[in-house]
Each structure stands twice: as C-alpha cells, then as structure tokens.
C-alpha cells in the first residue's frame, strides 16, 4: 500500500507514522515494568511479569533466567517487597488512641524524588489532620493539581509517621493506572502496590 502510486502522499505518510508507532509499541512490550509474582516452574523459578505498555491482563509467566537478563532490578524489588509482611502500629490504627496531629510546613524527608508544591503540602496536612481525627474526607480540586501525588504522599506519611503499613485500597479508572503506577514508583518505590 505505501509504495503504490495510486496512494496519496498524505495516506502514505499516515501509514508510515502508524507503522513506526506500532514498532515502538512492540519494543516497549519487551521491557519488564514490574515483577508481581513467582512460582516454582518445571525447571526453574518463574516470575509473573507486567510488561511496559501492556495492561495487567497481558502479564505472563517467564523463567528466572530470562527475567534476570532483562530486568534483574525488578526481581530484586519484588523479592524485597515480598520479604516484608505489612505490620501496622495497633495504637495508631485505632482512632481513639492515635497520637495528636502535628502540622508540618515543609516536605517530610521520606517523601523523595520530587518536590511537593505549597498547596500540595496543605493537601497532605488536610488528609493527615482528618485521619488523626478519624474523619473521612475527599480531595476534590481541579484536574492536574496533583491529587495523585498528594494521595501517594499521604500513604507514605501513614507508613513512615504513623506506622500503618496497609493494606490500602485505591480505586481508580483503568485508564489512569499507569499514571498511578509511575507515581508510586517515583514517590514511594518501596511500597508494594
């Protein structure tokens, strides 16, 4: 089709662009985004791999040898996450025995790999204050102001400041899951999501 003289130059260009996009996507599908499980295989350990650019229903079981060649770091991260069972501070888990809320004006040191803006620190304080008082709240502001970062930072605050290791449930549209995964990977790389 692309080489046919009857095809308009615009159509040829569109075909070439679509082809390049498909080739780039195929290359992306060969990169390990995350290891999310393991099992004893017939000959060696197998890892359940989430591939970059594919949704979770595209995960596959792959041999340890192959995954190690492609992404040993992801195996190490999986083993690290799996070795730590979530144990929470029971006194903090109970709303009646929680420590008093202490407002912070600057970004806590355990929130790394980015800089929260002033209004995001206020949002984090809002969430922390209401959690300490046993109140349910909703972060609701305009799109693009960092509700995802504030929520992930709040979970990090719960883990580091209040000893709450989860599990936490986050319900999001499927289309936003890659953005949430990126935010977790950047702001809380040690959390198992």
Automatic annotation (TrEMBL):
Keyword list, A-Z: ATP-binding, Helicase, Hydrolase, Nucleotide-binding, Nucleus, Transcription, Transcription regulation
Any Pfam family hit: SNF2-rel_dom
Matches recorded under Gene3D superfamilies: 2.40.50.40, Tandem AAA-ATPase domain
InterPro entries registered for this protein in UniProt: Chromo-like_dom_sf, Chromo/chromo_shadow_dom, Chromo_domain, Chromodomain_CS, P-loop_NTPase, SNF2-like_sf, SNF2_N
GO-annotated molecular function: DNA helicase activity; hydrolase activity
Positions in coiled-coil regions: none
PROSITE patterns in UniProt: CHROMO_1, CHROMO_2
Location(s), subcellular: Nucleus
CDD domains xrefs: CD2_tandem
The Chromo domain, residue ranges: 30-90
Annotated EC: 3.6.4.12
Quaternary organization: Component of the NuA4 histone acetyltransferase complex.
Protein name: ATP-dependent DNA helicase Hrp3
Lineage: Eukaryota, Fungi, Dikarya, Ascomycota, Pezizomycotina
């Amino acid at each position: 089709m692309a080489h046919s003289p009857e095809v308009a130059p615009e159509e040829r260009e569109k075909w070439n662009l679509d082809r390049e996009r498909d080739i780039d996507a195929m290359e992306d599908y060969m990169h390990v985004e995350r290891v999310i499980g393991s099992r004893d295989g017939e000959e060696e350990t197998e890892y359940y791999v989430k591939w970059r650019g594919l949704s979770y229903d595209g995960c596959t079981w792959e041999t340890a040898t192959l995954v190690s060649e492609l992404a040993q770091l992801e195996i190490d991260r999986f083993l690290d996450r799996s070795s730590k069972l979530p144990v929470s501070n029971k006194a903090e888990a109970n709303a009646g025995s929680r420590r008093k809320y202490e407002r912070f004006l600057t970004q806590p040191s355990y929130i790394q790999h980015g800089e929260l803006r002033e209004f995001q620190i206020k949002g984090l304080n809002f969430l922390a204050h209401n959690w300490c008082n046993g109140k349910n709240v909703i972060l609701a502001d305009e799109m693009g102001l960092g509700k995802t970062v504030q929520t992930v930072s709040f979970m990090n605050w719960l883990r580091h400041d209040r000893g709450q290791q989860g599990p936490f449930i986050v319900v999001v549209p499927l289309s936003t899951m890659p953005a949430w995964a990126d935010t977790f990977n950047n702001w809380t790389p040690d959390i198992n999501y």
